[in-house]
Amino acid sequence: MKFIEIKNFTEDLISWQRAQGRHHLPWQVNRTAYRVWLSEIMLQQTQVSTVVDRYQSFLKRFPNIQVLAGSSVDDVLAEWSGMGYYTRARNLHKCAQVVVNEYDGNFPNDPLLLERLPGIGKSTAAAIAVFSYGVRAAILDGNVKRVLARIWGVGDDLSKSAAVKSLWAHAEQLLPNKSADLVSYTQGLMDFGATHCTQYQPVCMRLDKKECLFKNRCQANLSNKVNQIPLKVKKINVQQIEMDWWIYIYRGKVFLEKRPENGIWASLWSFPEQNIFNKNDAEKLNSVKHVLTHRHLKIHPYKILLSSQPKKIKVDQAWVPLGDALKLGLPKPVSAFLKSQDLAHDDA
DNA sequence: AAGACGGGGCC
DNA sequence: GGCCCAGTCTT
Asked: In this protein, which residues make up the domain named HhH-GPD (predicted)?
């Protein structure tokens, strides 16, 4: 892919960011490496509006990397509960321990070293290096791919790794030379993609007075292809999945077990998917639908009020007081289900 | 190179 | 219903 020269792209983006970019997001003030790192992990595949509150809550619970490293992974998953992509939480915990044990609690500033840490890939490593240490490195997230692809008119299929690879090379070329500009530039790419060059209704397609500063240079705009860029051909294969939940209640406690370490909702607490106590007096409750990006779940809950508590249970199984269950690391549909039911009343 | 991995928001 | 979001890791 050949990239033409877009005049003054980098310097104009920097000026734009300083005048019209975002400057008051929680992780933009007091940019310590710990705060920057946490925000970058939370923001992976997750929108800013979702992260803001969860970020503040997480920082309150784990104010620094030593506290995080010294906590149990279960406590971290509990705080992460409902945010999805739970590998992020497990890697976050692992990464904190590595940084404390091998780096004396201080993140390295070299993007290549950062990239070796659990949960930190190329783009996140660059973001941490830029925002925490002012190191020169290029990011390439969803926003940046869209901005670069449109302005340079890249109509290639971005679900192909070759196309993304060429965008990476281009992103490196565009970096400003002055280190004092790195933060504004990097933040500018994100801000411009998130607020102007958006997926739906980018400013160039709106009827209001706002104008895109690149409208006369953007190849997608000049050729009327803004709606077709970026292009992704690959379709998500959505599986329809049916799942049973066996909800055992005994004296104000609910039986939960920890899910396997691999697969969906790994290491989170949930209801058994089989009738492990072999009871035949279950009440079938209304089924629950839960939509994930690549799976549509239809869940069939069966409720059983036990008259005695089974003696033998395994590790990673537990009778949890109903009032405490919501404090565990739970998948979204499990916490939603628990909140919607009055199980304590049934058991009275 | 392709799939797995959550949940929310927008069309 | 499909697609995307401050992506990374595994196969």
From this structure: 42-195
